[in-house]
Each structure stands twice: as C-alpha cells, then as structure tokens.
TrEMBL record:
Protein name: Death-on-curing family protein
Pfam families (alphabetical): Fic, Virulence_RhuM
Domain Fido: 200-293
Organism: mine drainage metagenome
InterPro entries reported for this sequence: Fido, Type_II_TA_Toxin, Virulence_RhuM-like
Lineage: unclassified sequences, metagenomes, ecological metagenomes
Amino acid sequence: MNTGADAMGTDDSRGAMAEVLYQSADGALEIAARIADDTVWLTLPQLAALFGVQVPAVSKHVRNIYASGELQSEATLSKMETVRHEGSRTVRRMLEHYNLDVIISVGYRVNSAQATRFRIWATGVLKEHLTRGTTVHVRRLEQLQQTQRTRFEQNARELEATLALVRKASSREVLSGDEGRGLVDVIARYTQTFLLLQRYDEGLLIEPHGEPGGTMPTLAEARALVGALRAQLMARGEAGQMFGQERGDGFAGTLGNLEQSVFGEPAYPTLESKAAHLLYFVIKNHPFGDGNK
C-alpha cells in the first residue's frame, strides 16, 4: 500500500526491499513492508492504515508496549530512508520503522474491524505454519516460478542455438567423416531428451495439443513391424533372435488397452496420447522378454 509521504521508492543502505505483507480479502488494502535483517518493517502511518485507526492511537500503543517492557525499542525500532516524489523533486527522509514483533503486538491491542481481520489473518498464518511447517506466499511463489521458467527457457534456447551451430559446423568438409556427424547426431538427440526431462523435473512441461483420432495397428501389423525392426537391428549387429519375443498375450493386451473408452469417450483420444501410452505400457508391462526394453 502506498501511504503518500511514506511511499518507498528505493532500497536503503541496509539492503531493505519492499514486499507485500498483508492484503485484504477484497484487495482494497495492501501494505508493502520493508524487508531487512530477516524481518519486516512498517512506519507508524502504515501501521495506522493496516489497522484502520489514526496515527496517534498507534503511537500510544507503541509507547505502552515499550513502557511495559513487552518489547525493547533497540531491537524493534529502526530509522530507514524513504523516498517521496513531489513533482520533479525527489525527497528523501529518515523515518522510524517498526518490525514484525511490534506489528503483531499492536495488532492484538487495537480495537477496530480491520485489526480484527488482521488478527484472523495472522492466526491463520500461524496455524498454517504449525500444521504444514511452512506458509505459501502465493505472490512470491508465482514470481519465483515465473523467474525460474524464464531462466530455464532462456538457457534452453541458448543450448539449442549452440547445438544448431554445431550441426551447421559438422556439415562442412572439415568434419565430413561419418563418425563426426554421428557424434553430433547423438549430442542432438541427447540434448532434446535432456531438455524434455529437465522441463518435467522443473514442473515446466506443458502438455502439447494432440491430433484427435489415430488408428492403432492390428496385432498382426504390430508383430510385422516388430519383426521388421528386428531384421534391421540384426543386420547392423545390434540385436539377436531374442529381440521382440513376446511373453504370453501381454503384447495383445497392451494394444487392446489403448482402445478402451471411459463414459463413452476414448481413454486416449489423440494420436500422441496413444503413442505415448503404447511406449509406457511396453516398458511397464513387460510384454516382451527381459532385456528388450
């Protein structure tokens, strides 16, 4: 919340930064606190705005808190620089700021509707800390996720751009051997797989839009395809007769699973989902002899 004379525009010498401490349910009230020394800080006018009372009332409560020995001013009061823009002028002032201990103490002394809402909010935060071990700051989490997503995508683009340069260089006469080009192909395939898995680990993987439909091969057609693959691999010395040997009716069952429906709708409605689950079931259900994954 911007409180006029106490608007905060720049960080002070202690490295403080502005962060939203509290926002009312209707969004009408938002208090931006200073964060420094592992706590948050508010000015008297901000405390008054937070609790919906006048500054003198808050000042009286603060004096009583210190007078009673409930808190010590040396540990909870600090002067920080604030910035106010008046037309073309920038005015800097040193204002007293009170830390979270004072904020909570005042909040439980003030008698106002806003103070009551603050106490309900504060109690909920404390309860969440106790029951979950942590409190999720929605706005900060969204900012961190966006920053993380942006940084990852930037790194991914740089990696892909570098890979494109390597591919281009490998096509020249300097690297004309099959082994050189083969190495580049391996790196290219690995890079794409790495980026895919990394996006999944970071929670940044977005499900692509699939092409509706897709027709599964019959069991005979699928067996013919496996046989053709076996022949190709054997010709290159990369497989033997054990490759693609079925175990019972597992392969037939896998193909049948992909034709299932749920409430009259296909369980796997797109070409991509059928292909992905075919791979998944072939790995998970062991329809072929061990060593064939």
